[in-house]
Amino acid sequence: MWSRLKQMLMKEFIQVFRDKRTRFILIIPPIVQMLVFGYAATYEIRHVPMAVLDLDQSQESRDLISRFTSSPYFDVERQVTSSRQLDDLIEQGNATVAMEIHAGFAQKLRKGETAPVQVIVDATNSNTALIASAYITQIALGFARSYQQDWIGRVAPQITQVVPSVELEPRPWYNPNLSSRWFFVPGVIGSLTLVLVITLTAFAVVRERELGTLEQMMVTPIRPVEFILGKTLPFFLIGVFDVSLIAAVGSLWFQVPFRGSLGVLALGAVLFLLCMLGVGLLISTVSSNQQQAMVTAFFFIMPAVTFSGFGFPISTMPMWLQYLTYLSPLRYFLVVLRGTYLKGVGIDVLWPQMAAMGGFSILLLTVAILRFHKALD
Amino acid sequence: MPWRARGRRVAEATPNTADNSVLLEGLVKRFGKFTAVDGISLTVRRGEVFGFLGPNGAGKSTTIRMLCGLLRPTAGRAVVAGYDVARDPEAVRQHIGYMSQRFSLYNDLKVMENLRLFAGLYSVPQRVLRERMDWALAMANLEGKEDLITGTLPGGWKQRLALGCAVLHKPPILFLDEPTSGVDPIARRQFWDLIHAMAAEGVTVFVTTHYMEEAEYCNRLSLIYRGRMVALGTPSELKRDGMHGELLLVDCTPLGPALELLQSAPAVLDAAIFGSALHLVVEDAASAIPLLKQYLAANNVDVQRMERIHPTLEDVFVSLTTGHGAAEEHKA
Fold it and tell me: Which fold has domain B17-239?
C-alpha cells in the first residue's frame, strides 16, 4: 500500500509544482483576494454622497448643514436650489442622501416649536440606507440637543442644572472600535479556504477523468483509498499552507488581533480542510467534466457561504433556514476563527464546533470513498 | 469490498480453457435502452494476436473495457487469465496491460517519471525495476529521451511509451484499444512489429482497430458490427469464406451512371465505388460477366475492364455489414 501511495504522491507533487500556473494560483490569488476582500467586505459606511437644499438660509440651517459637512460619514457635494434638482440627483445615483431645509426653519426653532427637516435616503441598498439614517438621526439629535441647551440657557438659565438624563456607557467587548474589518477578515480566511480547496480538489480528479488518465489508473491494481489519499493529501497540505498564508495577511496587514491559541485554530483548520476535501471529492464523483464540476461547486459554495454567518447574521434568519445553516461546515469554522482571533476562547468553548466538523469530515470522506468505484459505470 | 478479494481462478472449473487467455460467453452490455455489445462469444488462445475489427461505435471499446474490469457486463461472462472479470476485476488487473484509445499517460511528467509511476503502481519489485524500465525504454526506442516531458513527444513515440508503461509488469495478456489511431503509417508499422515481438514471447494480444490493413497483421480476427460479431476467422479464411457470392472489378466510364444502372441490374447482389472503379458482388462471376457487359454497352457505358478479383478484408467487411440483414434472410 505504501509504495503505491508514495508513487501517487510523488506524481501529484511533481504535477503541482512543475506547472508555473498552478504554482502561481496557489500563492498569488489567495493573497490578492484576501487584500481585496479585507478592504471590500465591510458594513461601515463613509463618504456617503449627500445633496442639500437650504431654503431657509439662516444661521441655524447653516449650522445644521455644517454638522453634516464635518462628519466623516457624509460628503456634502452639492448645494442645490430646487427640490426638483434634489430628486434628480437621487434618481441618477449622484446622491444617496438628500436633505431639504424648508423656509422658516430658524423661525420655528426660535419660537421653541418643532422644525421639520425632510431627508430622502436612496434605500436601494437597504443596509447602507439603514446605517445612513441612523447617522443622520444621530447628527440631527446632536444639533437639536445643543440648540435646546442654548435655548434653555437663554430663556431659563436656572433649569440647566436639573434636566434629568440617562447616560449610556456601552463597552463593546472583543472589538472596542467596532471595526467591521475585525469581524470580516476571519470570515474571509474561512470562505477563501473553502473556495480554494473545494475547486482544487474537485478539478484535480475531474481533470484526470476528462483526460483519460483516470481510466489508465483504474486498470492498475491501485486501490481506491490509495488513489484518493494520493489525490487529497497534497491538496490538504496546500490547504494548510494557504490558510496560514491568508491568516498571516489578515494578522500582519489588517492588524486583526489574534488572542487565542494557534493550536486550537490549527485543529479547527485541519478539520475544516478535511470537510472541504470531502466535498471536493464528492463533487468530482458526480461530475464527468470540468464544466459540470464548476457548476456543481458553485451550487455548493454559494449557499455554504451564505448560510455560514459570513455576512448575514444567522440569528436573524427564519427558523427553518437557521436549521439549514448547521449543514454548512463553514459555519463552524467561522465560529472557531472569530473565537480564536477576537475572543481568545479555547477548546473548552469551541469543542462543539470541532466535533461537528470532525463528524462532517468523517461522513463526507467516507461517502466520497464509497462512491469512488474503480469502474466507469 | 469484493473488488479487492483475491479470487480463485475459474479456469479449472471451465473445461477446455487451459490454453485460452480470454474467454467470452454471450457477453452483453446495455447502457439504458442502448445495447452496445450484444451477445459476443469467442475465445483467444495464448500467444495469439487477436484483432477486433469494426467501425466506430460497433462496441469494440465497450467490450475491451469489460474485459479490463472497467465496465460491468450486463449479461454473459468473460474470463481473462483465468479470472472472471465481473467477480474478480482486481485479479484480472494484475495480469493484464491496457492501452486505451486515447493517450492516457501523464503529459506533464517526464518519460522516466511515467515509467516509474506505473512500475510502482504495478508493484514491480525494486531489484528488477531498473532492468524493466531499461527494457521498456529500449523496446519503445526511447533511450536517451528519459528526461523529455511526455507531452512534447510525437504521437508515435507516445504510443510506444504507453505500450512500455502497459507491459512493465510483464502481463501475460495485453489489451490494446485502437493503439495506432492518430499515428503516422511508418510509426504504425513499427508498432505492429512490437506487438508481434511480444506475441512471439507468449504474450496474448487483444487489439481493436478500424484500419483494414492492420487487420491483416492479426492471427485471427473478429468482425464486429452494431454490437454483434458478424465473422470470426483468420484473415485468409475471412477473405475466402466471408463473402457471399463473387467479386467483380469493373473499370468503366462514366462511373456514376454505371453504378446506378448496376445497382438495379439483375444478378448483381451489391455494387459500390472502390477508388476509381466499381466492385460488384454477383452470385456467379462466369455467367454474370458477359451478361453485364452487354447490359452496360446497351446503356452507353464504355467498359474497359471487367474481371473476377479476390476480395480484400474491406470487401468482406462491407459485404457482411451492408448485407447483414439480407444475408440472414438468405440463410433462413
Answer: Rossmann fold (3.40.50)
